[in-house]
Each structure stands twice: as structure tokens, then as C-alpha cells.
Amino acid sequence: MISQPTSSLSDLYLNFSIFVHINYISIDNVQYYEEKLYECPVITVQLVNIMDKGQHYEVKDLKLAEQGLMNIELAESHMAALMVVKKRFEKEKPLKGIRIGMALHVTKETAVLVKTLIAGGAQVAITGCNPLSTQDDVAAALAQEGIHVWAYKGETTDDYYRYLNHIIDFKPHITIDDGCDLVSEIHKKHPNLISDIIAGCEETTTGIIRLKAMQKDKALKYPMIAVNDNKTKHLLDNYYGTGQSTLDGILRATNILFAGKNVVVAGYGSCGKGVALRARGLGANVIVTEVNHFRALQARYDGFTVMPMSDIVSNGDIFITVTGNKHILRKEHFQAMKDGAILANSGHFDIEIDLKGLKELSENQRRMRPFLDEYTLSNDRRVYVCGEGRLVNLAAAEGHPSEVMATSFCGQALACEYAVKNKGKMMPEVITLPEEIDEQIAALQLQAMGIHLDQLTDEQKKYLSSWEEGT
Ligand SMILES: NC(=O)c1ccc[n+]([C@@H]2O[C@H](COP(=O)([O-])OP(=O)(O)OC[C@H]3O[C@@H](n4cnc5c(N)ncnc54)[C@H](O)[C@@H]3O)[C@@H](O)[C@H]2O)c1
Predict the structure, then answer these.
(1) Is residue 461 part of a domain?
(2) 21: buried, middle or exposed (CB in 10 Å: 19+, 13-18, 0-12)?
(3) How many domains does the chain have?
(4) 135 in ligand 1 pocket by Cβ < 6 Å?
(5) Does residue 23 surpass a pLDDT of 60?
(6) Ligand 1: which residue has its CA nearest to atom 21?
(7) Is the pLDDT of residue 322 over 60?
(8) Range of 382's domain?
(9) Ligand 1 mutation target, pool 271, 291, 294, 326, most atoms within 8 A of CB
(10) Which is the closest atom of ligand 1 to the Cα of 105?
């Protein structure tokens, strides 16, 4: 019998007295070793993750560090705005003595953020915020540099939460979250730590939705800075970043031709707008589904067809969910899809495509290649799911390009500085950074790109601050 990966080798030592180490194998890019455990008279075979472990890290393979360091260097060369912040932090040390616990996608760009915070005087511990988004080479590079890091691509749910708890054990003064799992875990299981937490920073829309629900229930106990709500985050990262990288993920998983396809984009928010625009750019016929009147109107005026999912489902070739909501694609839809339909999700959690429902309808399931699963339904039609329904841009590709993450992560770094400066003055609610900080980030990025603006003349300044002048 081959079981799922178990939690740790030590568990096995406790449970079984004898085992023989047999073989190395790889599943979904995660390496396991196969062990035979002899328990007379039955022989059991267990698969156990092999991780490189030390006191301050648990990563897939430290030997990947060299590649990780080169990728981080490449990211740095495209994140000039963040490098300016890093340089200032090196001099001013605004985060001196601050412990920062992060649950963010462990990518090369996040590594640049980690190095920026450390340059500012902080101690940092990091884990992932999604089981499929870690770049193993980057995690190895961070571990090799002595940074506290627990993450690998393909984490089990047990490991995901075990790692989150390593971050909690680090006793952070500031938390940085992408999706609110760290904050939620602290509030549910470690409320004793909250008195020492200055603030938290949240990176994504889904996290903000959860935090606002916590605030409404009066469950939120420390201030949370909604970094996602910076204009230099959601209007750039969600739009241009998710737009490009979502298609990148689908292309790497399938190598499908977009031109001439009916591409259905569910959700016309900051991300969905970007995805729809880029799909059209590749020659697809894009159809948008929405539940919000204004967003539907925007989609229509932007030139897309808008209709309910039930009306388009039998004609769609590629379906992309990016709503932050659950079960956008469900049983009634799978049954109506045409043979060969491709499904991908770029929303934060793997709940937008009802995979459990799809499995229940399926007579056969095969992994065709990494990040592409085929489901054969009882009507003999095949449906293909990219990246196990997890955010396809990080599961099947590398996430957003570094340039766009530069402004997002300037937001994170400056939010940490803001939290320290305003320690004790912020209420336990979801707050946004002052407009000037957002402006400063945009200015840094423009400067990095060598783009100059016009300046208001004195006459224009006077006109804009007066009311007397009219028709
Ligand atoms: N993949 C990534 O790298 C990445 C990056 C940023 C954000 N995100 C995530 O993407 C999701 C969307 O983020 P956003 O910033 O675009 O949010 P948003 O709130 O701006 O947009 C979401 C849109 O989905 C619509 N919607 C909700 N339920 C729907 C339904 N049943 N059918 C059709 N439309 C529906 C909403 O009306 C809204 O217009 C979130 O989960 C966010 O965390 C992912």
C-alpha cells in the first residue's frame, strides 16, 4: 500500500521499530523516499518527504541555493524602486530590533523584500502562503544565507500549518500575510502573543476580505495595514501582474493556442480585468461573467461579452476564475462543458473550481504532465485542470514579473516602517497607508524607469485650490 506523504520521519520512528530505506522517487516535483516498514506479518510502504533541515530552516534541497541566489540577483535588477528603499533602510535602520514573521509566496521577489527588511535592521522568518507557490531554489538560497525559512513546493496541509507555527514561535512584532492564514492562526490559537504585535500587513484581496469580516465580528485584535489597497499594489500587481502571469501559467501547463479560443474570465475585478485584456491580446474571444452591476458594465464598455456562466459554459474553451469567491465552476457547469475544456484559477484559494464535485463526476483521472490533470466524465468528455485549481500563475509559472512586485513590496517595506513609527497609535482595524506613501512608491518606480512628469505651474496650483473662477 502506498500512502500519502507522512508528516515527519520521527513519527515513523515512534510508530514502527524497524524500517528499511529503499528508494528515491519524485512526485509532482517533490522528492520522496520510499521506505519499507516491516511489521510482521504485513509489509507497509510509506512515502516520506526528504527535506533539508536545520535549526532555522526546512527546505527541499540546499543544493539549489546557487540557482536561487542567481534568480534573486535577477529579481533585484528589475526591482529598482525597492532597491532604493533598501539602500535607505541600510542607513537609517528603521526596523532595528523588530521581528517580522511572514507568510508570503516564497519567490525570488519575496526574497528581495526579505533582504530589504533585514537591511532595515529587522530579523525575519518566512514561510509560504500557498502549498504550490514556493520556489525551492529561492527557499534554499534564503536558508543558506542564514534566514529562518520553512517552505517547499508541494507542501502537505500538515507541513503548511507546522511551518506557520514556526513563524508564530518566532514571536513576531509585525506579521506579513498573503491571504490571512497567519493572522487567523494567531487569533485562533495564540492570542497570548497579540499584545506584543505592533501591526500586520496584508498583501491580497482575499486577505482583506477575511480581515474585514474579522473586524465586523470584533474578532480582529491588532491593527492590519491593507497593503493590497495601495494603488501601487492592486492597480498594478493585480492588473498587470495577474494578467500576464495567469496566462503564463496556463501556457506553461498546456501550451494551448489562445488565438481563436473562447476564453471565459469569471470576475472583472483588478485581476480579472488584466486577465481579460491579455487573453484578448493573444487573439482570444473573451467572455466575462460577473455578479456586480458596475463591474459588468465596465466589462461591456471595455468591449467584452458579458453573460451568466450557465449561458457560456457549453461554448467555453478555457475558463479562468479570479473572483476570490467559491465554487464559481461546479458540477452543473462541468457536466455541460465541451470535450477538452481547460480550467484554471488565479484567485487566492483553491476553492473557485469545485474539484471535489469534479472528482465525484469523473470516471477516470490522470496526470497528463506537471500541473495538468485530466478528468474524464461519465459522458466521455474530458476536462483539464491546471495547477490543481491553485493559483495557476504561481503553481505552474513563476508568479508576477519582478517589475510589478517592486511597487507591491515597496508597499510592504514602507508599511512595516509606518507601523514602527506609529506603534501604539493605530486601532485594531483594517487601515490603509497614507496617500503620500503610495505617491512616493509611484514616484520611485517612475524614477527607476527614467520617466519624468510635468510640474504644475503656480497658476495651475492656484486654480486647482480656488472656487471663484467658473464659466
Ligand atoms: N494569482 C495572483 O497572483 C493574485 C494576485 C492578486 C490577487 N489575487 C486574488 O485574486 C482574487 C481576485 O482579486 P481582485 O483583486 O481582482 O478582487 P476584486 O474584488 O477586485 O474582484 C473580484 C471580482 O469578482 C467578482 N465576483 C465575485 N463573485 C463572483 C461570481 N460568483 N461570479 C462572477 N464574478 C464574481 C466580484 O464582483 C468582483 O468584481 C482574490 O482571491 C485575490 O486575493 C491573486
Answers:
(1) no
(2) exposed
(3) 3
(4) no
(5) no
(6) 269
(7) yes
(8) 237-395
(9) 271
(10) 3
46 shares its domain with 115: no
Exposed, middle or buried: residue 194 (CB in 10 Å: 0-12, 13-18, 19+)? middle
Report the alpha-carbon angle 29-48-44, nearest 5: 125
* Same domain? 440 vs 390: no
Q: What is the CATH number of the domain that holds 300?
A: 3.40.50.720
Residue 3 lies in a domain: no
Does 247 share its domain with 174?
no
Same domain for 304 and 359: yes
Domain assignment present for 471: no
Identify which of 135, 181, 322, 330 to mutate to test ligand 1's pocket (most ligand atoms within 8 A of the CB): 322
Which residue has a Cα nearest atom 1 of ligand 1? Answer: 346
Question: Do 214 and 113 share a structural domain?
Answer: yes
Structure-block grid coordinates of residue 400:
508576477
**163 lies in some domain:** yes
Amino acid (one-letter) located at 183 = V
**Residue 62 confidence (pLDDT) above 60:** yes
Q: What's the 327 CA to ligand 1 centre distance in angstroms?
A: 13
User: Ligand 1 atom 33: the closest Cα is on which residue?
Assistant: 290
Q: Which three cell numbers stand for residue 198?
A: 505592533
Between the alpha carbon of residue 172 and those of residues 165, 176, 266, the distances in Å are 11, 10, 37
Threshold 0.85, pTM exceeds = yes
Dist CA 335 CA 357 (whole Å) = 10
Among the atoms of ligand 1, which is closest to the Cα of residue 268? 39
The three-state secondary structure class of 297 is helix
pLDDT at residue 1, as a whole number:
33
Q: Are residues 28 and 126 in the same domain?
A: no
Same-domain check for residues 241 and 336: yes
pLDDT at 3: 38
Q: Does the pLDDT of residue 32 top 50, yes or no?
A: no
Looking up residue 175, the CATH number of its domain turns out to be: 3.40.50.1480
User: For residue 389, which of 205, 109, 131 has the smallest C-alpha distance?
Assistant: 131
Burial of 451 (0-12, 13-18, 19+ CB in 10 A): exposed
Atom index in ligand 1 nearest the CA of residue 179 equals 43
CA of 196 to the centre of ligand 1 (A): 33
Q: Summarize the confidence of residues 244-266 as an average pLDDT.
A: 98
Distance 138 CA to ligand 1 centre (A): 28
Task: Check whether residue 242 and residue 229 sit in a common domain.
Answer: no
Q: Would you say how long the chain is, in residues?
A: 471
Mutate to test the pocket of ligand 1, among 106, 107, 238 (most ligand atoms within 8 A of CB): 238
Residue 47 has pLDDT above 60, yes or no: no
187 CA distance to ligand 1 middle (Å): 25
Question: What pLDDT sits at residue 109?
Answer: 98
Q: Does residue 443 line the site of ligand 1, with CB under 6 A?
A: no
Instruction: Return the residue whose CA atom lies nearest to atom 37 of ligand 1.
Output: 292
